[in-house]
Design goal:
This protein is α+β, with helices and mostly antiparallel strands. It has 1 helix and 2 strands; from the N terminus they run ββα. The chain has a two-stranded antiparallel sheet with strand order 1-2. The longest helix has 43 residues. The termini are far apart.
Length: 101
């Protein structure tokens, strides 16, 4: 029908009478709130799981990098007092044209 209802007709024959029963059956629409809540919670759960996997991957990667750095630092040949890459910030330049005037 126009209301999206189903109408079932039933008839009963009794002595000298015919009874017709019509009972409309209107199905209810889907519940929107559980569907939306399920989709949103699924997306959030998938996002959290992906973030957890990324965090674990990065933690293991960082741990390996730190261990590699520590091993390289232990294998260095110079002492801890001086750094061969360090250059002092102050330099002295002698001007040959300046005679101390």
């Amino acid at each position: 029908s126009a209301d999206d209802c189903w109408i079932y007709f039933a008839y009963f024959v009794t002595s000298n009478k015919v009874l017709i029963a019509d009972k409309p059956e209107c199905p209810s629409g889907p519940d929107i709130i559980p569907i939306v809540a399920g989709v949103v919670s699924g997306i959030v759960l998938i996002g959290l799981v992906l973030m957890l996997i990324w965090k674990l991957f990065m933690s293991f990667h960082d741990k390996r990098e730190v261990d590699k750095f520590e091993n390289e630092r232990k294998r260095l040949n110079w002492g801890t007092a001086e750094n061969p890459m360090y250059k002092p910030p102050v330099t002295t330049v002698m001007n040959p044209l300046f005679e101390g005037k």
